[in-house]
Amino acid sequence: MTRRTYDTWQRKSILSVMVSRADAYLTVDEVLSLLKEQDIQVGRTTVYRTLERLVDEGRMLKVADVRGGAAQYRSAAPEFDATQGQLRCERCGRVLTLSCSMLESFAGHILDEHGFEVDRSKTVLYGICGACAAAACGVPEDATPSASARAAAHHRCLGQCVGHDLSEESCRA
Prior knowledge:
By secondary structure, this protein is of the alpha+beta class. Helix content is 40%, strand content 12%. It has helices spanning 9-20, 28-37, 44-56, 101-114, 130-136, 147-160, and strands spanning 60-63, 72-75, 85-89, 95-98, 124-127. Helix 2 (28-37) packs across helix 3 (44-56) and helix 5 (130-136) packs parallel to helix 6. The longest helix is centred in the middle third of the chain and has 14 residues, at 101-114. The protein is globular and about 45 Å long.
């Protein structure tokens, strides 16, 4: 039996917050905070259940935290392509679309060699985005206009700062 979906003010408010932050994954508590900033009072359970229902409807994406933390949700924008993966920056939380033939090739290898079909719509690779990596190395974002240039600057920084940790202090030499 399919449950009926009601278009309540709570649901509309939660959807509005998620669409406004479509480039980031948010926890239930982060959604609650954003709602409170707008003076919208919604219970934690309501937010959780609404997000789960939206995941079931295909309107939200959900990823589990790799460190056992709270699940995170993101709006599945209409232009979302289920064959693409996602890149998530562990520093700033930004999410980038991974539209790369290598992902398709990787998924094909996993299927052919291991008999396991990868759901690319739920494939999320975690790391540090080029902007955060360059900033950690003291490279101003406007000094290196392309992601590849920022990555190259970061690689040079890595050579100078062996063993640095981007989640901590910057690695300025």
